Amino acid sequence: MPSVPTTPFGASRQGGGGGADPDTLDATLVRGLLHELRTPLNVLLGYADLLDDDSLAPALRQRVARVRGAGERLTQLLDVGADLARAAQHRTEPDAAGPAEALAAAAGAVAPEAAGRQVALEVVGAATPDAGAGTGTGGGGATAALPARARVVAAVLTYAVHRSTAGNRIVAAVEGDDVVVTTTIAIPAATGPPPPGQAGQRFWWEAAQLLAGSAGVGLRQEHPGQPPWRAVVSFPRRGAAGQGASA
Mean pLDDT, to the nearest integer, of 6-30? Predict the structure, then answer.
């Protein structure tokens, strides 16, 4: 039985034969699989909406909410997978957005969810978003159309919003060639097995890590577990487009 390769999309790197680019073939396969997964997932989410009724017992409503929450997280994961597949197919078209442009777009997409969760989102060095505009939910449909680098920043912002509680404050600032996201609370390092019931909280950080490589930006977190938590998205230096900073 042939061995299973361990490259990003399962593409074989063995042998030097010609033919189509294996990354492109694998990306096409992944996009097809993601499309097939969306149909049954949408059915499950639709049934969850139908079942959610005020007449249900509290315990049943809680179960429906869990089903819907899991389905929404999986939908977001499919969005990230689609981004990675597109990046593999269009590697010759790098995103040239600078930190201020990426932050403005990302903050605009995440602001509605931050406002809904009563988390203050302050933007420094970029256009200030209108939290009342749009219907975005931070990282879902609101960020699906963002350029690659803005999606990385949006994923980091959404992660910080999800780890925060009402009344917390997040500051996203342009500092030179970096976008620095700072919170007033401590966020544990997103490494190792997550504590029980907290796997979903890490989703957006892991998504940002996956997207950063294809977007040509670096990503790191500082002071994990201690306040203030900081995340740094490092953009290529001006005049060095296409060269991502090391994480």
Answer: 47
- Please tell me the predicted confidence (pLDDT) of residue 123: 95
Give residue 106's pLDDT: 93
Each residue of 158-187: pLDDT tens digit? Answer: 989 988 888 899 999 999 999 999 988 777
CATH class of this structure's domain 99-234: alpha beta
Compute the distance between CA of residue 107 and CA of residue 146 in angstroms, rounded to an integer.
Answer: 11
Domain boundaries of the chain, sorted by first residue: 22-89, 99-234
High-pLDDT (> 90) share of the chain, % = 23
Secondary structure string (H, E, C) spanning the chain: CCCCCCCCCCCCCCCCCCCCCHHHHHHHHHHHHHHHHHHHHHHHHHHHHHHCCCCCCHHHHHHHHHHHHHHHHHHHHHHHHHHHHHHHHCCCCCCCCCHHHHHHHHHHHHHHHHHHCCCEEEEECCCCCCCCCCCCCCCCHHHCCCCHHHHHHHHHHHHHHHHCCCCCEEEEEEECCEEEEEECCCCCCCCCCCCCCCHHHHHHHHHHHHHHHHHCCEEEEECCCCCCEEEEEECCCCCCCCCCCCC
Please compute the mean of the pLDDT values over residues 60-75 and round it to a whole number.
81
Residue 153 burial class via C-beta count within 10 angstroms: exposed 0-12, middle 13-18, buried 19 and up:
buried
In the predicted structure, residue 23 carries a pLDDT above the cut 70? no
